[in-house]
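ESCALATION

Customer reports they have been waiting on this structure for their group meeting. Please prioritize. Original submission:
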Amino acid sequence: MEFDRLSNQVIGCALEVHRQLGPGLLESAYEAALAMELEQHGVPYQRQAQLQVQYKGVTLDCTYRLDLVVAGELLVELKSVDSIEGIHEAQLLTYLKLSGLKTGLLINFNETLLKNGIRRRVM
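Update from on-call: job pushed to the front of the queue and completed.
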């Protein structure tokens, strides 16, 4: 996979998490482990960043949480599902649009080979 340096760093950290833990755990375990791996590599991140929804100039009374925002420029949405579905990719694209971020990674840790569970999207 030929991606930008930051995406490659995150993917490398995710591969290490997958090597250590394997598939089959809850998303929260992978999020905690990936945050730890990013920390060890000196990659800045924000975990569970709040995303407020704007509609026609009004902030709605609802807030979403982004799994990880890495270096203020890369959105990382984690899954632990049988397979990535269209709705998961749509969620990533919507989060990118609403957050103003341009690049996102969707990582499904519930794969035998993690590379089969990685999608990168650019707005």
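Sent to customer with the following note: The chain has a mean pLDDT of 95.
Escalation resolved.
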